[in-house]
Amino acid sequence: MIDHSHYHCPKCSRSLTKDKKVVLNFKRNEADEWNEIFLNPEPGNYDFYTVPTTFFEKGEHVKFCCPKCNADLTSKKDPKFVELKMKVNDFIYFEALFSSVYGDKRTYVITQDDIDVYGDASYEDIPFPDLSIGEVPY
Ligand SMILES: [Zn+2]
Predict the structure, then answer these.
(1) DSSP helix/strand/coil, 118
(2) What integer pLDDT is reported at residue 5 of this predicted model?
(3) Most exposed of 40, 43, 63, 130 (fewest Cβ within 10 Å)?
(4) What residue segments make up the domains of the chain, in order of their start?
(5) 45 C-alpha vs ligand 1 centroid, how far in Å?
């Protein structure tokens, strides 16, 4: 069984885990400032809280960046997804992608030879081209 709890920034590789949560910075479209969001590390679990509390609107696209290096975490595979590195062990990282549209509860974990789906995601409707599999990660 894979330990799903360790996430790292695809850019700076630093850990994004704090107090058993995944901590990212987020920004709403019309906002000027970035705030902290704490996500559940379990794929497909969209429980979260923000500081200060934010009430997102359904269908709202939220931007995310790395709290350590400020890298934009928008996936190159699909701009409506955020991409993180999921640490399996010191040598293996998977790509974890979750929807950055509020209310869209789709999470994909791209492993070495497969894509795992979580939440409302389904195998019939994978938004990334098959080409992405087998690509060398960052
Ligand atoms: Zn970073």
Answers:
(1) strand
(2) 76
(3) 130
(4) 7-132
(5) 23
